[in-house]
## 1
Amino acid sequence: MSFGAPHLHLRLTDSTNDRARELAEAGAPSGTVVTADEQEAGRGRHGRRWSAPPRSALLYSALLRPLERTHRLLPLAVPLAVCETVEELGAAPCQVKWPNDVWLEERKVAGVLIEARPPDWAVIGVGINLTVGDDEFPAELRWPAASVGGDAGTDSARRALDAALSRWVDAPAPDVLAGFRRRDALFGREIGWEGGGEPRSGAGLAEGVDEDGNLLVRVADLEEPIALGAGEVSLRLDTKV
Ligand code: BTN
């Protein structure tokens, strides 16, 4: 699997994920990538907005098709590719905040929004802050944000992400799990969750991921950790290390 051809670059669009979805429905091949200088309606997870000044972030959506059982760890594999991209652009080592935020020195430098119509296709949406200034991030962000910095440009970022996704999207599950565990930002931290799991909200100690990529949370008075699925859960960090 190789990403980056064909590649469609738009100056302005509502959301590159929406453009890629349209291309998917029109029969575009796996590996198709859509990028934009600017989005008018960039989307994040949980219906949130994603915004960045023009050309100061990589706004990237890639089409993967078909979506198979072997891609069940895609939500963990994609941020590993993003970490390698960010590091290749000269940043310090990155971590992943489950399921797929990328952190640079405790601040969010990139986010991932995967939208899928299984088994036909998945659109892998990635936003990487490259040169967004500290005073240019939206005030309502839930997590402190960061940029890669230096002279990181969108072209080199796109090429690096094409190559990194090509390495990670079909990587064997044990490699993805091992890669994630090396970069797990939440391991050993007190977290709270809401919107999913059983019970649907609570707090406990993050203990890594299981073989299906669920987040394991150790909760007082329960013998077994709770397994949270990536789909709908919203997390907060209850303690700083
Ligand atoms: C998140 O952290 O909540 C996910 C953010 C994903 C943003 C990217 S930018 C390119 C692509 N197009 C979108 O509308 N969203 C994703």
Note: The two ends are 38 Å apart (CA to CA).
## 2
Amino acid sequence: MSSLLRFKMVDAAINHTAVEVTPPKGRPSDYFGAKVFSQAAMRKYLDKQTYEVLSNTMENGTPLTREVADSIAAGMRQWALENGADHYTHWFQPLTGGTAEKHDAFAQPDGFGGVIEEFSGKLLVQQEPDASSFPNGGIRNTFEARGYSAWDPTSPAFIVDSTLCIPTVFIAYTGEALDYKVPLLRSISAVDKAATEVCRYFDRNVSKVHTYLGWEQEYFLVDESLWAVRPDLMLTGRTLMGHESAKNQQLEDHYFGAIPTRVMAFMKELEYECLKLGIPVKTRHNEVAPNQFELAPVYEEANLANDHNQLLMTIMDKTARRHHFRVLLHEKPFKGINGSGKHNNWSLGTDTGVNLMSPGKTASENLQFITFLVNVISSVYKHNGLLKAAIMSATNAHRLGANEAPPAIISTFLGTQVSAVLDKLAAATDDKAIRFDAKDVFKMSGIAHIPTLLRDNTDRNRTSPFAFTGNRFEFRAAGASDNCAEAIITLNTALADELTAFKQRVDEKIERGMKKEKAIYEELKAMIKACQPIRFDGNGYSEEWREEAKRRGLDCETSTPLIFDRYLDERTIGLFDRTGVYSKVELEARTEVKWETYVKKIQIEGRVLGDLTMNHIVPTASNYEAMLLDKVYKMSHIPGLNATSDIALIKRIQDHTAEIVRLTEEMTEARKRANRIEAMREKAIAYHDTVEIFFDEIRHHVDKLEEIVDDRLWPLPKYRELLFLR
Ligand code: ADP
Ligand code: MG
């Protein structure tokens, strides 16, 4: 790669203007869900009986018979063909991250020299993708070589381009989950069961509790021509080198600023595509860092919301390419400016329409709210290390604790009002003194004329990884590229377990003759006191908090491979076993995959870094050095000229280059040593402790060179080009 190429690409980036987008016909309400086999489509394309059986399955999980599956497949095929589909695929979420699909044509030889469009119930319900190359953490070797994908009727089929996509789970023949959807569904039903029981203390009519998820997706856009000449961005998703731009986000002029025209064209097309797929996109804005943006939909039932997020990430990538952008979902693509997260807004709601994480209007509703709130924070306290493991990855590790994102310590922020209520409850000696009327719970002196909700929203702490935001919890530590399921599975499961134990203790008290309300109060009081250490309303970025958190006994581990150990703690194994979300075998397998993925990511970064330094940076620096040497040599022939500053420059280049070469060689050696380790956990630890430690050091010298080497020679697009051309 040469600097000529860089300039050509900068030129191309400057010349990229907004791509013309054909405006959608009609209003969003006309095309929303047009590419989804929705309830409306089902009613139209299925006979009444089939529709009813399927509805029952979607609501209550009753198994489908072969005949019904055939009828559904026939209707679905009809709908898909009428909507331009010619292929179908099972669409699943393997542990690689992202989604997997294998397209088959509907067209099938009819035996008379022609073709006929075919799609049977068998093809709809179950397939056997050749899945041996998906990560499985050893499950498929130890148990059974085959895996299969099976339709999840709770999330509707949809069409992308001309392919009918059928959301499926992906499991081993022996039943172990090989994906994110299976455990997510299990966790949703675990929390439904446990929460419904507790709700019935307050309202006998509750028969189901839903999990809701509203994600906020942050991302960067980079011009595709520049991206193409940054091997690090292309292969690792982040810049492994690059001196900070003189201007980056310090003026805070990007956040909520006017959206650039080219980006707007991209967003409009993206939103149109999303709406057609039934993704209820709502919010778009510039984020804090230059070229960083956010998209958020209206929250939905968690399984569907998660499918939609997975789908969004794919659609984003495709759409960005049409606009000559590349979308970066890496958690930390650029040094020195904010990285990207994916806030997971999480709540539970009953089938009677009550949000269990929102203060209610009556005393009983508020006691129910406090009950759920306390159970949430108590479960987060008990499993804070595990929750961190759920959102930790080689990529997210760069963002957490980087003074812009939550620290690598999980704590909860409740806001002053809710905190005060809990403290009052814990301290109360006379039960009658506590009355949870809405105005008691959210009384704020002086500004009573401001509606309650507005006040909740202003009471915020951006540094908290897990914040209560008025009617939901916001898990902010999740990374931009994560599958949200990981976080939601852990939250749901921990809460389900907590609620079950809570219910048992309250029931025991009631059996011993205590009144229900009093039993609940007593339990909550004890729990509030016990989980005090997880509550933290201060500045999560501060050094003092790290010290304080350690004193409080919260999980402060920062090494990614060691954080994964939390998945195999006895406590974790017990938790997932009791709730039926993961078996021990599944936990072991998934942790193995996590270590393996970590190793691969760092391995790739190490290789790319080595390639860039030795094949791009060092030769460039040497060229410049040769030019200077030539100059100094010539100068020495002319009396009276002083070459001191040139010589000093040459020496600096020499020093940095020598360090880069030495460190790169050492890193390569360390990598070779790590590669010889068999056990995946130990290998991951070796990569973390002995390989990754070179990255920043090497980068430091490269970035120094970038500062002094002639800009005309520098081969890699610089930060100012990557971040400000759009
Ligand atoms: P902010 O950036 O201020 O945190 P946004 O409006 O960008 O807020 O995103 C908030 C997200 O939270 C949206 O996806 C929204 O639908 C979701 N949300 C709102 N209420 C709930 C709730 N009760 N449960 C789950 N998600 C919710
Ligand atoms: Mg948010």
Note: Confidence is low (pLDDT under 50) at residues 440-455.
## 3
Amino acid sequence: MGILSGKIGLVMGVANDRSIAWAISEKLLSEGAELAFTHLPGPSSQRRVQNLVEQYKPKLVLPCDVQKDEDIAAVFDDIARSYGRLDLVLHSIAFAPPQELRNPYLQMSRAGWHLAMDISVYSLVAVCRAAAALMTDGGSIATISYYGGEKVFPGYNVMGVCKAALEHSVRYLAWDLGRQRIRVNAISAGPMRTLSAAGVPGFDQMREHAARKSPLGRNVEPADLANAGLYLLSDLSSGITGEVLHVDCGYNIVGL
Ligand code: NAP
């Protein structure tokens, strides 16, 4: 028995065992949650995710490109058919065209900007809307942000603009869903070496700087994010919504 026994969850954004979503998923599973997973459509993503999650024997491992409304609808239809309800959702998805991140933000193309915003921000709105319909007994939704949404990190560029929009979406979604007892929060994670992070120019310097400057004198680890994910997605955080929780070893409080 764990604190999530009997809870049904959906995790979107596991790519491999280094994904932030995977660290949080393992924690949720260890506390008794039953999880469904999504992966980008296509045989290689499906194989990657299926191989990783099969040890936990999930009932649903579903394709979903969050750019497609029909994919999102199909995922929540499957969850409705299998479980009839939903208690928690982890949204851990972002994308920006890597070649665009190599140029100054000033040079950002219209198409690249829309693509990054669609996948990294609008998807949370669409997912919250679909999830809310199944969260008949309240629920908790969490997404993953970065401090580059508050301050300028050269190279993070459009992703920083996306994270600013994501964090403010969290507040508006928390407002819209609060009376249904559905909470929406974000974790602002310190830099972690993942597939997505590999596309951010200067990422290793960001990590070195974060470890040097943080009060805790180190970089964030998967367990730090797993614990925070459990907190926000369980009743441990029952009175908290619209919040951006920094899980960054304190990096954001230091002014030098
Ligand atoms: P990750 O393992 O690469 O996860 C990103 C996920 O987004 C992948 O599963 C990817 O699928 C998925 N994705 C991309 N486009 C998609 C689409 N159109 N539809 C559905 N899924 C899509 O990297 P991560 O670092 O854990 O990233 C997770 C979240 O944490 C992101 O929001 C990221 O911005 C945020 N974050 C990361 C860090 C960090 O330092 N790593 C710090 C703060 C915040 P595929 O791999 O199959 O393409």
Note: The chain has a mean pLDDT of 97.
